[in-house]
Write a structure and sequence with these properties.
single chain; alpha+beta
Length: 205
């Protein structure tokens, strides 16, 4: 589906490519079944991000702390949460991101979960960044038609169709500029196993 939606050319792999892919696949599987919670588990819940707004579509240069526990999940970041399955899930996502980045070498990669959050006191269906590698970037992308006019992430989250941008400067579609150093981008939907039309989140790189 990604190839069809994004008009990507088919690529032939030799034996070494397949061996590398098999190892990457095994490492990614291991990341998602790991039972290890890191000693710095509290840090999995917090990161700095540009100030959010549903009206200002420019990427703010002002950074503020974003707390997944309180700002997205609606729970306190306490010892009970650190010992909970939610923390184990976040640890697995971070390991998966590290595995992908190490294998591919991209400068930025993140995974977003679709959930309902409060922005400026208003409940909004949105994509929330749960784990990433790279420089600071927006934490929340509202899933609204208004925001999708400016955001590739929101567009993919709403349509469930992958988008590949070979050259961001030549791209004519929705694109949210948060780092002028970015030259290309790929955004893939995470679809429900039981309903291929239901978008659970995205992977952006």
């Amino acid at each position: 589906r990604y190839i069809r939606d994004s008009h990507l050319p088919l690529v032939e792999f030799d034996e070494d490519d397949w061996l590398s892919f098999s190892k990457f696949n095994a490492d990614l599987d291991a990341a998602f079944i790991s039972q290890e919670i890191p000693d710095n588990a509290r840090q999995l819940y917090t990161y700095n991000a540009p100030t959010m707004s549903t009206e200002n579509f420019a990427c703010s240069k002002t950074l503020s702390p974003f707390n997944l526990a309180t700002d997205a999940y609606g729970v306190l970041l306490d010892d009970a949460l650190v010992r909970s399955p939610l923390t184990l899930r976040l640890a697995r996502l971070h390991r998966a991101i590290q595995t992908v980045q190490s294998a591919v070498g991209m400068e930025w990669v993140g995974i977003y979960n679709r959930m309902n959050v409060s922005i400026e006191g208003n409940p909004v269906d949105a994509l929330v960044k749960e784990a990433y590698y790279g420089s600071e970037s927006r934490a929340v992308f509202p899933l609204t038609y208004q925001f999708a006019q400016y955001s590739n992430n929101s567009t993919v989250g709403m349509t469930g169709r992958a988008v590949v941008i070979q050259d961001v400067e030549a791209h004519a579609g929705p694109y949210y500029v948060c780092d002028s150093a970015v030259r290309s981008e790929i955004c893939l939907p995470i679809l429900s196993a039981s309903d291929s039309e239901r978008v659970l989140g995205i992977v952006d790189a």
